[in-house]
Amino acid sequence: MYRAIGPIWEANHMWLIIAIVILFVGFPVIYTTMSIYLHIPLTIMLLGIIARGTAFTFRNYDAVKDKMQVVYSKTFMYSSVITPLFLGIIAGSAVSGRIDPNANNFLDAYVFSWLAPFPVAVGIFTVIICAFLASIFIIGETKSEEDKTRFVTKSKHMSLAALIAAVLVFIVATIENIPLAHWLFGNPVSIACVLLAIASLIWMWASLFTRQTKLLRVIAAAQITLLLVAITYEHYPVLINLKNSEGLSLLTQHGDVKTIRSLGIALLAGSVLILPSLFYLLYSFSNRQEE
What we know:
mainly alpha, about 75% helix, about 0% strand, globular, transmembrane, membrane, Cyt-d_oxidase_su2
């Protein structure tokens, strides 16, 4: 696991920092709405990220191998479930129209906005998707044929579990009158993405049998990207659907134009510095492992 994610462990957290900074600086209304009405799941997710990172670091670098290794491993395992679970719950809450700005009591405003069947179903689906990606990526990191066989089996199980979880999300969305089917099949782009995702699933299963590790990673990443595009295309640029049928849009609820322009320039300049360093980091670790 360290060989698989060690090279980009800290760099991987940049997405969280960058996302928060972009929302805070460029889209303050959206940031405020999420941080107020979804502060409970956001806090739990952030605590999960902290616990996961510290447990991974202590487990790998602890000079003394004792019973604490078990504690670190358990902490890492449970936080690796909690973090994507609440990430999915937050996403499900944002698009399901459960956030009520006019709520007049604590439960309606801060609990029932996310503690509901659809957000929880999306959270479970997110956990399974993360497990699926992890099993796919770890196949190319292990040298043992026994481990490769084990993670190929896990990948197959997780892909089937993801299909079951997706059906569960559809059922719950239908019960709660969330137009998920319209988002996926209401426009040509989403339909094309769904069809490509299904085709890539068949391709992925064929690649699992032949164990084409690099191709598997590309296919798995493409599947998740196609899924995200299919779900979000219909209601883009609306990022949050509110209970009063209003939506918070990236094109209307943004900061001052000068702020957005400066933010864009900063992101482009930062990418020029960060991306080459990230690729060099991966290259360096890859060569060290081969040696």
